[in-house]
Amino acid sequence: MPAVTRHIGLSLGADICWPLAFEQILADSKLALKIGKDVVSFTCERTTIEPFALKPGCKYDLVVDRLTHWLAIQREWIKKCILMDGLYVYNNPWSVQSYEKHSTYCAMTALGMPVPATMMLPQKNYEPKPDLDYTLKAYARLFDLGKVGAEVGYPQFMKPYDGGGWQGVSKVDNQAELVATYDKSEKWLMHLQQAVAGFDLFVRAVGIGPQVRVIKYDASQPLHGRYLTERNFCSPEDEQVMIDTCLLINTFFGWDFNSVEALRKDGTFHPIDFANPCPDNQVSSIHYHWPWYVTSNLKWALFCAATKRPMRKTLDFEPYYAIAKKDLPYREKLKGYARIARERLSADQFAEFCDKHLGALDEAAHKWFRSDRCRDAIRRKVANMYPAHEVDEFSTRFFGIVQQSLSDSEKEQKK
What we know:
Blueprint: E1 3-11, H1 17-29, E2 33-35, E3 38-46, E4 62-65, H2 72-85, E5 88-90, H3 93-98, H4 101-110, E6 118-121, H5 132-139, H6 145-152, E7 156-160, E8 170-172, H7 175-184, E9 190-194, E10 201-208, E11 211-216, H8 223-226, H9 236-252, E12 257-265, E13 268-273, H10 283-286, H11 290-306, H12 318-324, H13 330-344, H14 347-357, H15 359-369, H16 372-385, H17 391-414
Parallel strand pairs: 1-3, 1-4, 4-5
Antiparallel strand pairs: 2-3, 6-9, 7-8, 7-9, 10-11, 10-12, 12-13
């Protein structure tokens, strides 16, 4: 049988720990997969930032992207390779560039998703531009901020329409705080969103291809304490709602890797932040869930590369909107959206591929996470983030949590 090699590129920013895990586990697994008439093996390397010509020529079959959301040259290189070379990449770069939080709120609200009441406010101040004064005098209308705040309802959050990492987010409890917060917003374009007061559960659903992990979340904690280790904390039906919600959002916007934050109140999950196509994936933040992330990332990358999965260059919203028009309860609509999502993600084929081909990968991953190489990767990440006197403490802590995650998974598999 002909031997072929699939080339995987890692497009990285300040990523340290997970690329080491990805590369070393892939090498340890020594995969040679019989796909059709070929025997497929894999190589992996880190992409570089350098001049590129606008002509065909890309050596990668797939790129796992963690950089184009903020580095323009890498984004434009990725676009070139998709258009000229048929590259598959996480995530659709045009979508990442254009669908900020505002657009995602609009789209998902149109599909019936229970997003909290949200309004956009004109900027407090503007960058000086030619004809700005004329435009504002002619068309900008004075408005009653207090009336807007009352319409949205207190408590509420003011946050940038395209923000991330909690930058510029303020909780507002009354009109006086609203006025003071708006006055400080300067040139940011802001949303005002009703808080989900009285919620009883905060979750993050992280999706990688058709794989979704629902995680209990505590935003009040420092970053290393936000992703909680508790499992089976909600009913199977609630978990399925969040899985379906994540798959809907990701496939609607062409994202392979994204996370969805949602708050549950009176039995309903209200998504509040779900344009996160470059979510946390470092052991210093997701620790307990890191083995799942690395392994799931590898599996989706290998499936896409091995099967030459075609990149969806354009987004097709119409099948989702067709369901939205039906006179159905939202949960039934969500099930329909999820069926489209699973079809687009080739979920059944992916599951079959993993069962047939990736047993050696699972074994290699388990051994790696128990090894000193895992401990070293964790320490490298911690040393890059923490002061020297805390490196030993947090390296030991995170490695211990990873071991607990493995032990818990083993117990689950034996049930």
